[in-house]
Amino acid sequence: MAHLKDYSTSNQYRAKVLKSERLTPEDTNEVREILLEVQEPEFNCQVDQSFGVLVKSNDDFGNEFHHRLYSVADIPEKDNGKTKITMLVRRCNYIDEFSGELHYGLSSNYLCDREKGDVLTITGPFELPFKVPEDRTSNLILVGMGTGIAPFRAFVKHIYTHVKDWKGKIRLFYGARSGLELLYMNEKNNDLANYYDETTFKAFLALSPRPHWNDPIALDKAVEQNAEEILEMLSKSNTHMFVAGYDKIHENLNKAFAKILGSEEKWKRRKSELIAGHKWAEVIY
Description:
- The protein has six helices and 14 strands.
- It is of the alpha/beta class.
- It folds into two domains: 4-124, Elongation Factor Tu (Ef-tu), domain 3, CATH 2.40.30; 139-284, Nucleotide-binding domain of ferredoxin-NADP reductase (FNR) module (Rossmann fold, 3-Layer(aba) Sandwich), CATH 3.40.50.80.
């Protein structure tokens, strides 16, 4: 798995903020959708790519800049030779378990504080592990948590807008702490509902049973409730599985898929087959 230090920052571009909109209510974790316009015409970004953001740092390790990668959350567009890209950013803060001090995520707070007209420095583009299979009968199991919905929102939109005539099943499992924190699947912005009429697409939600108690998001339950169909999909050689979200997603998913397949050993074997066949991809943060 690649690390941030493996991504070159030599290609740098100026990106102007065209829009910054908060997607979640005030009393929940702040997630913003930011639309950028890259000023240099040579910058080209595709739906299966990511880009970096450089923020001045001067940290304790002597780094002048902090580099953070973001998936595109919509299909990139060209307008007058300039590329427009959309990103999702969750404002991150954490408390040091030893000192008790509150720390602010450098990139996330910088980006969430940007306003229309501000210019920032981006890098890339970089390849994402998520690729649209050439075989249009391929089945896709997509699992995302929080802002992990970003690449899949762009991915699904691209398939039904540009690829078209998709024959395989696409099943999206999306987890958030509460219904108020769902992105692109809420009353204000139900973007993914555009594809509910597609016979090959279905989306399933997973929420925390007690969000104010920080109970885990019940992604495993949503997966298990569709066990029969998932088992049938995993029996096919042309099924791909893509996962994006927090690192805690692994434990719950492994338990759920082990239960569906009948044992932990059977799931390990099937997952190994997916990885070996380049049909498993993940972006974990």
